[in-house]
Design brief:
single chain; 354 residues; alpha+beta; four-stranded antiparallel β-sheet; 12 strands; globular; binds aspartic acid
Length: 354
């Protein structure tokens, strides 16, 4: 007998509850854990053309096995190289951030695309947004189920619709109609995210997992001095079905204006929305004439914690100054400078590995 979708969902919730009680697990898969070191904030870096992040979090340096560390650095490097190649070839910052984020969405170690966390019904609902600093056009998707690369769908919303934000089923259908790769929910599965859901169900709340690879984002500056920003996430583990965080909200999780800043945030989305975090950084630069590092620190280190949450951001100004403030003990990130030097940072205060 065929099981209808609502019934299948109810069954999966029941199954989850039983799993909580029995601590059973689904079959193993190749998930790897990421950890970042305790430490303070980071100072600004000059001459940057592209930067990416893989979520704000905190675990002591040395917590990573060499294999885990390699996996995270390799992923960041691949994303950075992909974006940098676009810029070096004379391409736009918009193309660069989309392609860099796609690499991280395809990597199971991050909470975006494959490897995304589960909601309370054991499903993946994905959020993403992208913004072009030159035109201030933007596109975003929320709660998509079957789109392999939500960031490319967000871009498609920007370029092929009259809308900025599309959600749920309509967004997935829009993806199908526009040739964005469609996939089943199983594609996004990883064992460690499933285990995290089981743990969260024990605590009965939606949780960020500050100690493991999280939301991803990218900011870039191209040869025409134009900025762009992009963010993609699975949101919070055990979030309510239909919950939308800051990542697809322009001005909260993502913002780009080529006269001020390109910024991608990570942290407890509800507070980043209430604090209009990403746009606030731009406004402080535009109206209060603050340098990017001060503007970003004001919002991320003062305002957001005062509203009750922690998190971080990568913020790049039109001169190529990169700020990476975080109120968590760390922020997984990396950047490429104009001369092609790639730096990845899993731990606060680490010296560039090469
Ligand atoms: N900001 C994301 C959300 O609330 C989560 C995160 O960045 O960890 O959906």
């Amino acid at each position: 007998m065929a099981i209808s979708r609502p019934r299948a969902l109810r069954l999966s919730v029941l199954a989850l509850t039983l799993l909580c009680l029995s601590s059973a697990v689904r079959p193993a898969d190749a998930g790897t854990e990421v950890f970042v070191a305790a430490g303070s904030g980071s100072s600004p870096v000059r001459g940057v053309v592209i930067a990416v992040h893989g979520g704000a979090g905190s675990l002591p340096e040395g917590s990573l096995t060499p294999e885990q560390e390699k996996a995270y650095r390799t992923a960041l490097e691949k994303a950075l190289r992909t974006g940098y190649d676009v810029i070096r070839g004379g391409g736009s910052s918009l193309d660069a951030v989309e392609r860099a984020v796609r690499v991280l969405e395809d990597d199971p170690n991050f909470n975006a695309g494959k490897g995304a966390v589960f909601n309370t019904d054991g499903e993946h609902e994905l959020d993403a947004s992208i913004m072009e600093g030159r035109t201030q056009r933007s596109g975003a998707v929320a709660g998509v189920h079957n789109t392999r690369n939500p960031i490319s769908l967000a871009r498609m919303v920007m370029e092929r619709s009259n809308h900025v934000l599309m959600a749920g089923r309509g967004a997935d259908i829009f993806a199908l109609r526009n040739g964005v790769a469609y996939t089943t929910q199983d594609y996004f599965f990883t064992q460690r995210r499933w285990d995290a859901l089981i743990r969260a169900k024990g605590g009965q709340s939606a949780t960020r997992e500050p100690d493991i690879g999280g939301t991803v984002g990218a900011v870039a500056l191209d040869g025409d001095r134009q900025l762009a920003a992009a963010t993609s996430t699975g949101g919070l583990t055990n979030k309510l079905v239909g919950r939308v965080g800051d990542s697809p909200i322009i001005g909260a999780g993502t913002y780009a204006n080529s006269r001020t800043v390109a910024i991608s945030c990570t942290g407890t989305g509800e507070v980043f929305i209430r604090g209009v975090a990403a746009h606030d950084v731009s406004a402080l630069i535009e109206y209060a004439r603050m340098p990017v590092e001060r503007a970003a620190a004001t919002v991320i280190n003062d305002k957001i914690p005062a509203l009750g949450a922690t998190g971080g951001a990568i913020a790049l100004d039109p001169k190529g100054t990169l700020a990476t403030p975080h109120s968590t003990a760390g922020l997984i990130n990396g950047y490429v400078t104009r001369d092609g030097k790639i730096v990845t940072r899993l731990y606060d205060g680490e010296t560039p590995p090469r």
